[in-house]
Design goal:
Length: about 160
Amino acid sequence: MPPPRQRAPAGAAKRNAATATVDYRALARFRYELRTFLAFSEEGARQAGLTPQQHQALLGIKGFAEPGPPSVGDIARFLLIRHHSAVELMNRMAKLGLVSRVTDPEDGRRVQLKLTAKGEQKLQVISKKNVEELRRAASPALRRLLRSSPQPGGAL
């Protein structure tokens, strides 16, 4: 007589069906390509005399989508860091001449951030190389997206 069948735990069939639909090779390849690009971008920031976090902050300030310039709090959220860490980062970047701070005319407690000419120039150099690398190494789907994006030097 065969042994009795054990009943699968509740939800096991659903989990098995979900994992069967995951393309682990594609996911692993995507994560590898993402890490490779990030390493390329971080090295480009270092070559431009910036830390990767400073580059990311410049990008966050330039690419801020809300009306008006971003605040320190906005950049803290963009960088996934605490507000006081963003304050210190902006202090260092202001000393380097990369960003300027302006008091919000509508709320004197809020400090808005803007790129200086030096910050704009460094960001443009890094961004141009990053977009070129993405175009070179991108999958067909990402290439289509990049073709529809403005060229470096314009808004990213």
